[in-house]
């Protein structure tokens, strides 16, 4: 029997007492209240209620190496990034790789592969594939239903996927930014029970009123804690915490769910029991997860921290095993892995990137970026060019050229413009472009854009920058999304890329993360896919020229 001593944090009865946690065969066999010398605190292990592991650019095993030292014992994850590239085989790769580490990883069946019929993905996960996945014991829920127009307008394909989830008795995750009124009511009545896309308090309150649970998100690009933290006053048991998309440097240097707990205490003065419940109890109950909650009879999944404000992790226990100790480090190491991928892009010709003015007074629809938000606007731009002239980027107006290229089959690139990226020279881009993960590059000139596209194609996927003859690429040989290397190494390479992007002029907090969402055709309002410019509000293609 193993005994862990400290201040036991009982989130069920909202009390803290000195005592011992007794562990045998992976479970808690007793919790004894008694005086002990330890000043540490024993709390339930932290759970990320919605995350795409692929966005860390790490395998599930590599991701585990970063988050377990942060007190995360479980994640609820949607593998739709790799599914868009490799289909069900990609989901199976993630499940198999995650089994090689102790982190409890609960996968959903991707519901939107591709996210829309208006882009090219590497695979299709249709109703029949979803039905089979939902019957598997290692699939715990139907992943975020991003195709909310399909729900509202009774798409047969969408309804079939929802029925498979309902028949399995497993939860359905939502994704409905800005949806309200009758459309939201219909969306929720279809059985969809969570949302992580709330950008403001009013939106969250309407969704809570209809019975949804809100996943408060703090990722590398979208951060909603500040806007939503007051929900804890009255709705603590309808809240969960999540990171959604976090890059490796964010986790390594700032933390994971522990970072949200610190912020909740120190910045917003939230109740510690409410916070801890949202990081453990609420997701366990909602998703029916076999994760312990620091009770007799539970699996021994808990964390020892220094106090209830810093949440500095001293030890992490999963199934009764000390998988991390601040003095001894991790008890597991990164396993070998396969490198599955799908890549068949054509290198464009210079003339493929050229656009000419159709008339002297033509205006262009430009994607307008807001730093820290996934939502984009539409900016109407009249270039200083005459009919027939080439349209170039305008550094003075901070309007740059943007190219999205199909990476699965040879095709013409899609060309548009984007505002507020801030580059003064060169180009940045990658093969992480939600959700179909085609190539996406933004730059100040065609030469650097074209050269970077060539670099990315020759590397078989990755992210990087190019300026004249200089370039740097972080290779991502697993589906063009992930590296098999350790998290620390990938994090350091990513920091170097981000620093160079800033040296090229961008002021975006997470330039590569922000860039990766500019082709996501399910988040309003204007995006560029591999087939053209897309108005998400109208859910249809629009002309580049007004």
Topology diagram in text:
Layout: E1 2-10, E2 15-24, E3 27-33, E4 41-44, E5 46-51, H1 60-67, E6 72-77, H2 80-86, H3 88-98, E7 104-109, H4 127-134, E8 139-145, H5 148-152, H6 156-168, E9 172-174, H7 181-189, E10 194-195, H8 201-209, E11 213-217, H9 225-228, H10 232-235, E12 239-242, H11 248-254, H12 257-266, H13 272-278, H14 281-287, E13 302-305, E14 313-318, E15 321-325, E16 329-330, E17 364-369, E18 376-381, E19 399-405, E20 414-419, E21 427-430, E22 439-443, H15 446-459, E23 462-467, E24 470-475, H16 487-503, H17 511-516, E25 526-529, E26 532-535, E27 540-541
Parallel strand pairs: 1-4, 5-6, 6-7, 7-8, 8-9, 10-11, 11-12, 17-20
Antiparallel strand pairs: 1-2, 2-3, 4-13, 13-14, 14-15, 15-16, 17-18, 19-20, 19-22, 21-22, 21-23, 23-24, 25-26, 26-27
Helix pairs in contact: 2-3, 4-6, 11-16
């Amino acid at each position: 029997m193993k005994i862990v001593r400290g201040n036991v944090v009982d989130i069920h009865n909202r009390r803290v007492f000195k005592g011992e946690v007794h562990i045998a065969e992976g479970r808690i066999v007793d919790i004894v209240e008694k005086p002990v010398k330890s000043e540490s605190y024993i709390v339930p292990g932290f759970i990320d209620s919605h995350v795409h592991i692929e966005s860390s650019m790490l395998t599930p095993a590599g991701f585990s190496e970063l988050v377990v030292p942060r007190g995360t014992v479980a994640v609820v994850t949607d593998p739709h990034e790799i599914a868009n590239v490799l289909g069900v085989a990609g989901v199976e790769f993630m499940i198999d790789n995650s089994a090689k580490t102790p982190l409890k990883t609960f996968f959903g069946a991707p519901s939107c592969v591709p996210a829309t019929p208006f882009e090219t993905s590497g695979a299709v996960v249709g109703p029949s594939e979803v039905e089979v996945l939902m019957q598997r014991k290692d699939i715990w829920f139907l992943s975020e239903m991003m195709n909310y127009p399909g729900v509202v307008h009774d798409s047969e394909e969408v309804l079939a996927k929802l029925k498979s989830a309902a028949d399995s008795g497993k939860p359905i995750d939502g994704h409905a930014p800005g949806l309200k009124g009758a459309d939201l009511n219909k969306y929720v009545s279809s059985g969809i029970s969570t949302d992580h896309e709330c950008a403001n308090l009013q939106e969250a309150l309407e969704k809570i009123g209809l019975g949804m649970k809100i996943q408060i998100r703090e990722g590398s690009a979208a951060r909603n804690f500040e806007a939503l933290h007051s929900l804890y006053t009255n709705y603590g048991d309808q809240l969960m915490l999540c990171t959604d998309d976090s890059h490796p440097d964010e986790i390594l240097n700032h933390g994971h769910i522990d970072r949200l707990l610190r912020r909740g205490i120190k910045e917003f003065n939230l109740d510690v029991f409410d916070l801890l419940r949202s990081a453990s109890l609420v997701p366990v109950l909602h998703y029916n997860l076999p994760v312990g909650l620091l009770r007799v009879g539970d699996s021994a999944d808990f964390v020892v921290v220094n106090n209830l404000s810093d949440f500095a992790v001293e030890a992490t226990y999963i199934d009764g095993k000390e998988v991390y100790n601040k003095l001894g480090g991790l008890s597991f190491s990164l396993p070998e892995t396969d490198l599955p991928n799908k890549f068949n892009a054509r290198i464009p010709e210079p003339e493929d990137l050229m656009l000419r003015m159709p008339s002297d007074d033509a205006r262009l629809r430009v994607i307008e970026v807001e730093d820290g938000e996934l939502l984009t606007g539409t900016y109407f731009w009249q270039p200083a060019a005459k009919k027939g002239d080439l349209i170039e980027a305008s550094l003075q107006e901070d309007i740059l050229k943007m190219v999205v290229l199909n990476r699965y089959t040879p095709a013409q690139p899609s060309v548009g413009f984007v505002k507020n990226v801030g580059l003064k020279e060169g180009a940045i881009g990658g093969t992480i472009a939600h959700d179909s993960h085609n190539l996406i590059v933004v730059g100040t000139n065609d030469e650097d854009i074209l050269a970077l596209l060539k670099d990315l194609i020759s590397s078989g996927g990755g992210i990087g920058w190019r300026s004249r003859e200089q370039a740097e690429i972080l290779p991502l040989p697993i589906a063009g999304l992930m590296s098999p290397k350790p998290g620390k190494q990938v994090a350091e390479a990513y920091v170097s890329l981000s620093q160079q992007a800033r040296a090229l002029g961008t002021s975006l907090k997470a330039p590569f993360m922000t860039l990766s969402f500019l082709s996501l055709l399910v988040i309003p309002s204007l995006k560029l896919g591999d087939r053209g410019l897309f108005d998400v509000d109208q859910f249809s293609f629009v002309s580049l020229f007004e």
